[in-house]
C-alpha cells in the first residue's frame, strides 16, 4: 500500500471545505463548540457506515457507479444548494433556547448518505488504497474507523474555528452567512461540474 499517497489523499479530502465542515463551523458559530460536538460525532458515525458499506460493496458499486453516481450527485448537490440558501438568508433571532434541528447526531449521520463528496471520497479511498492490499474483516473495519476518526477530527477543527471566532462572526453575521452559503453552493456546483 502506498502509505504516503494514501495519507495525502485522505488528509486533503477530509480537511478541505465540504458540507460537513461548513455546517460544523456554522453550528459552532451559532450554538458554540459544545453544542456542536454531537453533530461532529454524527458525521463520524455516518461516515464509518458509509466507508464500511463501500468496503464490503465495492465490487457491486463498481458495476453500478455510472447509474448511482448521477442520482447521488444530483440529490446531494440539490440538498447542498438548499442548505446554502438557508444559510445565506438566515437571520439572527432573539435569544432563544430553541436549537437548529439540523445540529443533531442523527441528522449528521444521515447527511453522510447523500453527501456526494464523502461518498466519492470513501469509494475512491477504499477501491484505490485499501482493497487492493487488505481484504480481511479486521482491516476493512479498522480502515473504516480510521477514515471516520479523521472526519470527526476535521469537523472538530472547523467547529473550533467557528467557536473561536464567534464574537467576530457575530458582528459580521450577514456577510459570514452569505460567504458560507456561497462556499457551500460552490461545493455543490463543483460536484455537478466534475
UniProtKB/TrEMBL annotation:
Give GO BP annotations, semicolon-separated: cysteine export across plasma membrane
Where does the protein end up? Cell membrane
First-listed, main subcellular location of the protein, grouped into a coarse class: membrane
Q: Name one Pfam family in it.
A: LysE
Membrane spanning stretches: 6-27, 39-61, 67-85, 105-131, 137-162, 174-193
Q: What InterPro entries does this protein map onto?
A: LeuE-type
- Top-level taxon of origin: Bacteria
Quick one: a GO cellular component term? plasma membrane
**Its membrane topology:** Multi-pass membrane protein
**GO terms of molecular function:** amino acid transmembrane transporter activity
Report keywords, A-Z: Cell membrane, Membrane, Transmembrane, Transmembrane helix
Q: What PANTHER family does this protein map onto? A: ARGININE EXPORTER PROTEIN ARGO, ARGININE EXPORTER PROTEIN ARGO-RELATED
**What is this protein's name?**
Lysine transporter LysE
Amino acid at each position: 500500500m502506498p502509505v504516503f499517497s494514501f495519507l495525502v489523499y485522505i488528509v486533503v479530502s477530509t480537511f478541505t471545505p465540504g458540507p460537513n465542515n461548513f455546517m460544523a463551523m456554522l453550528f459552532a458559530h451559532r450554538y458554540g463548540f459544545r453544542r456542536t460536538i454531537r453533530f461532529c460525532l454524527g458525521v463520524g458515525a455516518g461516515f464509518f457506515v458509509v466507508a464500511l458499506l463501500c468496503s464490503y460493496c465495492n465490487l457491486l458499486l463498481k458495476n453500478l457507479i455510472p447509474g448511482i453516481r448521477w442520482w447521488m450527485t444530483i440529490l446531494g448537490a440539490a440538498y447542498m444548494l438548499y442548505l446554502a440558501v438557508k444559510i445565506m438568508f438566515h437571520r439572527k433571532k432573539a435569544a432563544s433556547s430553541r436549537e437548529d434541528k439540523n445540529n443533531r447526531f442523527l441528522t449528521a449521520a444521515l447527511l453522510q448518505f447523500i453527501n456526494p463528496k464523502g461518498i466519492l471520497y470513501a469509494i475512491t479511498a477504499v477501491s484505490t488504497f485499501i482493497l487492493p492490499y487488505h481484504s480481511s474483516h479486521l482491516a476493512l473495519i479498522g480502515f473504516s474507523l480510521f477514515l471516520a476518526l479523521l472526519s470527526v477530527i476535521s469537523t472538530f477543527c472547523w467547529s473550533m474555528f467557528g467557536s473561536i471566532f464567534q464574537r467576530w462572526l457575530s458582528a459580521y453575521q450577514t456577510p459570514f452567512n452569505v460567504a458560507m452559503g456561497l462556499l457551500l453552493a460552490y461545493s455543490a456546483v463543483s460536484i455537478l461540474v466534475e
